[in-house]
Amino acid sequence: MMNACAEKRANVSNNFMIQGKLIIFSAPSGAGKTTIVKHLLKTFPQLSFSISATTRPLRGDEVHKKDYYFISKEEFLHKVAKHEFVEFEEVYSGTFYGTLKSEIQRIWNEGKHVIFDLDVEGGLRLKKKYGAHAIAVFVQPPSIDVLIERLRGRGTDNEDRLSERIEKAEKELSYAPQFDYILKNHDLQTACREAEEMVSNFLNSH
Length: 206
Ligand code: ADP
Ligand code: 5GP
Description:
There is one protein chain. This protein has a five-stranded parallel sheet, with helices on both faces. Strands 4-3-6-5 form a four-stranded mixed sheet. It has eight helices and nine strands. About 30% of the residues are buried. By secondary structure, it is of the alpha/beta class. The chain binds adenosine-5'-diphosphate and guanosine-5'-monophosphate.
């Protein structure tokens, strides 16, 4: 017979034991997730970043196996067929992103909790799967105009990719109320401080 504690850790789905917590950051591209997640990783040594697989090409100074597992579309679809993803999305037309089951397991095996940077649909899907073991945070920019400014300022996307991201952002902003927590990212320092407090409370909860 499983005791209550073991039951709590037991599998909710996907034949995979829950061995740690999941902290999910979602938002439209350019809202500041990556910046805030990097800050949290420096602040909390017990967190480790879930490196997603993607079919998009490397951007700026990104590094394979650090920022993403950059793989071909064929390899990605092969992994889909083998049920290797806990979730995946065609975030932009023809461009896939997904969280590998093996990645979450790798981090839990290290005794750490997992922090994710996912699109809004993927973020909500993971939250639904892991319930109280997960917290889903929506990073909200002050306005769509500021979001566009940040995307342009980042300077990593060509005009086509920028338009695609801006177009998608309007719809994504409407998902905010479905998240556990809305983190306003107006002033970065304030947002980072608020994020720290929220993560600390979640990690210290049962
Ligand atoms: P995302 O991961 O959500 O796509 P990024 O973290 O890459 O967003 O942030 C997009 C750009 O906006 C980056 O150039 C980043 O330095 C900048 N940025 C993030 N937060 C703020 C903020 N509060 N104020 C001004 N610029 C910001
Ligand atoms: P970017 O190309 O700017 O790195 O990411 C584009 C979008 O894909 C972002 O919203 C990012 O959060 C999302 N994303 C990154 N990895 C994953 C993933 O594994 N699954 C899902 N659903 N979205 C992801």
